[in-house]
Specification:
4 helices; alpha+beta; about 35% helix; about 20% strand; 4 strands
């Protein structure tokens, strides 16, 4: 099982994503989040077909399609984190941290 701990930034609504794939194709996804919109998304993507989701053209996977219907913040990192967890759970990539640091230039 892969666990992704998402600290989304200024909203402060943390999310924990758990992804598990015994057959390396279909992935069970469970999400705990302080964000009501992310919890709505979690209801829609309890199972993800990894091959379709990971190898879809950018922004067209089932995860992003479902996210468009419930998330109002386009920069929310949770959908990408879900895909990264699915990818690692299916051994399509090694589990590695993704880091975005935002800083004001001096």
């Amino acid at each position: 099982m892969i666990v992704a701990d998402v600290n989304p930034g200024v909203c402060g609504l943390k999310t924990i994503i758990k992804a598990e794939s015994p057959d390396m194709m279909n992935t069970s996804v469970s999400i705990e989040s302080e964000c009501p919109a992310v919890m709505k998304l979690s209801e829609k993507i309890q199972t993800v077909d990894a091959m379709k989701a990971i190898f879809s053209p950018f922004g067209t996977s089932s995860v992003f399609t479902e996210a468009q219907a419930v998330l109002s913040h386009a920069a929310c990192p949770v959908p990408t984190a879900i895909l990264k967890a699915v990818e690692a759970a299916c051994s399509l990539a090694l589990p590695a941290d993704v880091i975005i640091e935002l800083k004001k230039a001096e």
